[in-house]
Known about the structure:
InterPro entries: Thioredoxin-like_fold (IPR012336), Thioredoxin-like_sf (IPR036249), Thioredoxin_domain (IPR013766). Keywords: Signal. Residues 1-24 form the signal peptide. There is one protein chain. With 467 residues, the chain is of the alpha+beta class. It folds into three domains: 4-117, Carboxypeptidase-like, regulatory domain (Immunoglobulin-like, Sandwich); 118-226, no CATH class; 344-466, Glutaredoxin. Helix content is 47%, strand content 18%. It contains 16 helices and 15 strands. Helix 5 packs parallel to helix 7 and helix 6 (147-171) packs antiparallel against helix 7 (176-205). The chain is globular. The two termini are 44 Å apart. Residues 1-30 and 255-259 have low confidence and may be disordered.
Amino acid sequence: MQKKYVYINLILFSLLITSLNSCKDGILSENHTAYFGGEIENPKNNFVVFMKNNKVVDTFYLDKNNRFFHKFDSLTPGLYSFKHDPEYQYVFFDKNDSIMIRLNSNDFDNTLMYCGRGDEKNNFMMELFLRDIELKNKMFEMYEKDEKKFSKYLDSSYQSTTKLYTKRKSFINWSDEFDEIAKANIELNHAYKKEVFPIIHEFKTGKSIKTNLPKSYYDYRKRINVNQPNLLHYSPFINYMTSMLNNIVLTDSKGSLDDMSLENNIKKLQIADTLIKDKYVKNLVVNNIANMYLLSDQCAVNNGKFFNLYSKLVSDEKMKSDVMRTAENIKKLKNNNVLPEVSLLDKNEKLVKIQDLLNKKTIIYFWTKQADSHSNYSHKKVNELKLKYPDIQFIAININNTHEDWLKEIKANNFNNSIELRASNFEELKSKWVINKVYRTMIINKNGTIKDAFVSLFDANFETYLN
């Protein structure tokens, strides 16, 4: 972690937090008064959005020194998030906390530092996040190993993180409410990787091990309570729930990963309905299933059957509306349609029309420097494919880095095997091409129409899609 400059600059930042530190005793006498502020180096825009449960609580505008500061007369303790497009992070407030942040938006996560009352627990939460990102990058190849090697590696990391949690808890005086979040972070991130292992292993190797795992493999599920509304909008919880339901259905399925898409997803809805009692948790999880289903099955008859059950289970009308809008956008990406235009820039920051480039068979893939391992492996995979398929054109699209950061990454990693472009508007890309993650690849016919918009470079059967 590149924190050194943060500590140095915190000295310069002291004027902003002196008033908070000097009045810590005073603010404790007020009921739920809390403070939130900070400074953003190299800001991408002039505001910070403060949210609770994915809903905007307030918007704070930066002053001429790129700082913001806000007093809440009453702030309910709990987990919040703040967003400085395109990045976001979590912040936990206990009663009367006065939390300040400092970060460089060019390296958002690695430079984020909390200070003031409530800083220690939030810095620990950030430490857990960065450890998990580092582990995910290291795990990329581990998913190809056998179960014993995979579990030994993952369990060793889990034990190390648990020891760190115990150590931090012993000298940081955090609340029971925060403790629940910290423990959930560790358990859910560990469980998520256990859930996706049999799926990714088969995906990458073509070999199914889902029915050959030890009987004790899924014991961790007993430690996880799926009816926790306080975790409803916490990404580790959503990631775990999605992967767990997916894994249960695929383990029970006699077919391959691609078989029985309608049946599998209806089973997911039924399992979620049985397993989850809290209506808010059920709404979000079922909605997540719907969004994932839309990316895998474009049969109109199947969609009707699926959404008939989906509509009975989800009580949130806005969620239903958003899902149906996604369904309409996905229809535009069906085979033999023309790929919709989005805002793409070349290395000289000139706007590029994607159709002007699609004059031969093309593979379009995505990357970001925030997913280091994926970006390196995807470019490496393209090197291999270019040798086998010299007539295919490759286009790599960066999805959420600044122009300067993008160019630095291309140069530092010697990415020269593809036409490198950058999406200047991620929300547009997300909507028109339904890109939510970097693990998507699109195959385009030589006449510029879509052959398949929903595949992956790392699918063991990927090359069969090229024929």
